[in-house]
Amino acid sequence: MSNEKNKMNVVQLTIITAINMMGSGIIMLPTNLAQVGTMSILSWLVTAVGSMSLAYAFAKCGMFSRNSAGMGGYAEYSFGKAGSFMANYTYGVSLIIANVAIAISAVGYASVLLGKELSPIEVGLFTIFTLWLATVLNFRGARVTGRISSFTVWGAIIPVLAICIFGWFWFSGKLYVSSWNPNHYPFFTAVGKSISITLWAFLGLESASANMDAVENPKRNVPIACLGGTIGTAIIYIVSTNVMAGIVPNAGLLHSNAPFGLAFATMFNPTIGKIVMGLMVISCFGSLLGWQFTIAEVFKTSALAGYFPKIFGKVSKTETPLLGMIVITILQSLLALMTISPSLSKQFNVLVNLAVVTNVIPYLLSMASVSVMQKSENAPVNKMRITNFIALVGSVYSLYALYTSGSQALMYGSIATFIGWTLYGFVSHRFDLKKSDNIEKLV
């Protein structure tokens, strides 16, 4: 009974899923999209279709899978223990990288809000402080994390909904049209440039499945959270960013470190803009909080499966993997020190692209396992065909996102993946030798 009290309900899980997408991605999204112009709405449509396909497939995975460990459990249906390991490993790597990027962005935008010029070393130290603060707040367990995240999400929801509803009074169709393709990119080049940006905004649609062990009635609640969080986020993203493009000139968005603050300053006054910036920083921290919890859950389930060291599987009285969280944050702190650079935005973009590449790998493994998963549960043939087709659409989109991420991100992502295969060699005897022994006994 005590364990159930420390588990999230469906509303909290849906909110965390939405926060994991909105809390960090929304802050700089208009600025990044301004690199392409309002033509990026076409990329939104492509990403919306791809993300909804992935979310639908993940919802079905949550219903059919008998395995725990989220995407690692899904991948096991088609690729065995090796695929399960790689899904958990690459997902864990992507979250570690992404959280450092989120923390760096939160510190950077907070410094703009406070009017403070931070040196690269100061940015690194404040980033480490932010990471540790998020970790400590997670020590009380899943329910406390859900409550805090339920509060901080309003830092993004309030300004974004205000833009969606009231921004139309300041919207200029002429300004929107003039910002269509300011750099005169070829059609497919422009769409491709925005794909990785929009996918970064949607990363987190799978976080409900990653938190299966920490939610009440996961068979029912995980699919609801996946679909509900993704649909809501897609609507908010598309409306808010396109309304802003008709309020603030493209050049202004392009050079802004706080685009939502700039939009509200344009609509009202600089003071309102500052308030919105503060709310966005709070929301970003809430996203970091949710992601830190998700990382710990991914590493815990991987440790319980025998993939990762046992230290990540040890939990406290509140079912919280404290030691694992500490080890993860130490790794993130080292990564934050490694990212110290005079060009914070450039380093942020490198981290984001690498996080996207490594995050897509478990997506592909999971989508490829949908068919086997359904057959193992004797799903109706007509429903299987529909789900398999949607999973294929999600796979094609994921491959396209890899292609548009750039050669550098693909290279480093490939190296990280090959390291994972090497690491699996050290634990594969726990699974492959047992399988071989069983086969010999049968023969």
Automatic annotation (TrEMBL):
HAMAP family: Putrescine_transp. This is Putrescine transporter. The chain crosses the membrane at residues 9-29, 41-59, 89-112, 118-139, 151-171, 183-203, 224-248, 275-299, 320-341, 347-365, 386-403, 409-427. The keyword Chloroplast does not apply. It is found in: Cell membrane. Keywords: Amino-acid transport, Cell membrane, Membrane, Transmembrane, Transmembrane helix, Transport. The gene is potE. PANTHER family: AMINO ACID TRANSPORTER-RELATED (PTHR42770), PUTRESCINE TRANSPORTER POTE (PTHR42770:SF6). It comes from the Bacteria. Pfam families: AA_permease_2. Its main location: membrane. The keyword Ribosomal protein does not apply. It is a multi-pass membrane protein. GO terms for cellular component: plasma membrane. One of its GO terms (molecular function) is putrescine:ornithine antiporter activity. Belongs to the amino acid-polyamine-organocation (APC) superfamily. Basic amino acid/polyamine antiporter (APA) (TC 2.A.3.2) family.
